[in-house]
Amino acid sequence: MKEETLTTATLKLKNPQEALALFGEGDTTLRRIRELSSARLSARGDTITISGEAQGVERTEAFLRDLLAIIRQGGQIEDALERSAALSAQGKSLSEETAPMSGLNLPNRLRPKTPGQTAYLEAINRNDIVFGIGPAGTGKTYLAVAMAVAALKARKVKRIILTRPAVEAGERLGFLPGDLQAKIDPYLRPLYDALYDMLEVDKFEGYLQNGIIEVAPLAFMRGRTLNDAFIILDEAQNTTPEQMKMFLTRMGFSSKVVVTGDVTQIDLPRHVTSGLAVARKNLQNIEGIAFHHFTESDVVRHPLVGRIIKAYDVADAEEEARQEQRRREREQGAQRSE
């Protein structure tokens, strides 16, 4: 039996704030790091000692250095732990894969947390129209809003326009209490939440009053030409093909458009085709338009969210296979009866 080579390594933290960011409140993050590491960890003051088999110590040291690099770049590590551990085992670095683009100043020191998010931001930076398609929790809307705020602050655009279709789910608009604004606010709340995260309340309210930021239902876009604007269409899977065409043709000069949606969460009636699905089919090869597809590996909510999405994807694939098998059996039965 081959004898293991045991070794140790140490890492020094710069200050107590760095230790808190790495370990978490009550060492909750440190316990998760220990679970993901292939060596033993002990933390005393500003020193972390790593011990164990040589390869495990090397991988764990790379893992911790990767997390510290993310912290020192202003990022949060909680949602990056599993991905960073996996990359470190392959000799790769998450901090390098998700490094902010040069010249891009996102609000609140925000940074992408996955390579897919980095590629999404790069696509927005390079193209006039970008479709961000993928499951919930991948940051497709939040990052688009961040890019819009960054563009406004850099004076690349004069206003931000955020819109989404007011698709009814259980309650009809006419039966909801309040005036028109009160009726549509629940549909637009996720967009408001993202903006409140990135702007001071007084500044946000001022932008709203002055028309620098506009949050409105998709129906309000009809008949307009939107120049010098960063325009985001959220929940685009719930547009009809006609609504999608109407929206895309509102784009004016010096504007940028980001369309986000999840084709697995369509709330339209069964006989209505999703405008997002049609756009994905018709606009793939047009210069200046980019399609970015997120996967469950880009989910930055609780780790269970990614597993839930994957389980549903597997179930959907199995159901499609069963339907295809039944279709073939019907065709074979029809051929035999002839």
Describe it for me?
Helix 10 (241-248) links the parallel strand 7 (229-233) and strand 8. The protein has helices at 16-23, 28-36, 54-72, 81-89, 94-97, 115-126, 140-153, 180-198, 201-210, 241-248, 275-282, 303-337; strands at 6-12, 40-44, 47-53, 129-133, 159-164, 213-217, 229-233, 256-261, 289-293. It starts with 5 loop residues before the first strand and ends with a helix. The protein is of the alpha/beta class. 32% of the residues are buried. Mean pLDDT is 83; it is low at 168-173. 46% of the residues lie in helices and 15% in strands. The strands form two sheets. A six-stranded parallel sheet has the order 6-5-7-8-4-9. A three-stranded antiparallel sheet has the order 1-3-2, with helices on one face. Residues 110-313 form the PhoH-like protein domain. It is found in: Cytoplasm. Belongs to the PhoH family. Residues 91-110, 319-338 are annotated as: Disordered.
